[in-house]
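One thing: can you check what follows?
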Amino acid sequence: MLRSLVGSEMCIRDRSLTLTLTHHHPHPSSPSPSPNPHSLAGPDGQGENKFQIAMKEAPCENYGCFYLTCITCSYGTNWCLRRQVLEKDWSRYYCCQGLSPCCQEQLDNVTPADPNGRACCAWCECCVCPGLAIAATRSHLMIEYGLTPDPSDNQIIRFNNCIQMLACICEICAMFNPDLREAADCIHCIAQIVFCCMAGCMAGQIDIEKRYQQSLGPASAPLLGPEAHDRDTAPGQAPEYRAVAHDGPTDSTPPPPPPCLLYTSPSPRD
C-alpha cells in the first residue's frame, strides 16, 4: 500500500539503527565528494558543507519552485530538477541515481544507453515514483558536493514518515470497520498534503543549491561521473573508482556515500 522510498536524507553514525538505515554500495551514477574547495567531505562520507537554505526556508526563499511542486504534486518540477542536477548530461542518469531500494542491477540493465532514452526513463521514473525520484535527485546533490542536511530537514521528513504510516494504519482499519472510512479518507488527504509540502521544500532546496554551486564556476562542477567508474566488479563488491584529471592531487578511492534514512510517500488511491 505504501511505497517505501530511500533517500540520503540523514547522516547517522550509530550503527545500531539497523531497522531504519540502509547502506548502499557506491554506484556509477553516484558522484563522490569532489576534492575541490567548494565540496568537502569527511572521512566517513559525511559532508562538511551545509545547504544554502534548509527545507523549511524554501517556501519563502524559492516560493516559485515550492508552490509549483506542491500544486502539481511534484510532477511539474521533478524531471526538470533531475536535468538541472545532471547539468543536462543524461548519460549520467541511472534509475534512482543508483539509490533504488531494490533491483538496482536489473534497472540498470533495462536502462537504454542513448541519452534521449535515458531522459525518457527519467520522465517515467518521475511519473511512477515521484517521491523516490526527487529524493534520489537530492541524494545525488548531497553526495556530489559533500552536503549535510539541516536538522530541521530530518524533522520534516520524519513527520512525513509518521503521517504516511498513520494513513496506512487507518486504511487497514477501515477495511475491517467501515465506520472508519471517513476518518481514513481524511487522514489520507492530510498525508497527501504533507507529502506535497515536503516535496516542495525539497525541490526549492535543490534548485537553490545547484544554482549556487554553478555560480561558483568550473571548480564546483562534478569531477566524477559514470565514465570515471569501473563497473566490471564482482557481485557484491563495490565498484572501483578512478580519479578524473584535476588540478592538484586527488584521492582515487573516495569514501562511501552517507547512510540512508527510509521514508515514504503517500500511496495512490483508486
Notes: The CA atoms of residues 55 and 267 lie 23 Å apart. The helical segments are 58-61, 63-71, 78-85, 104-110, 115-128, 130-145, 151-176, 181-215.
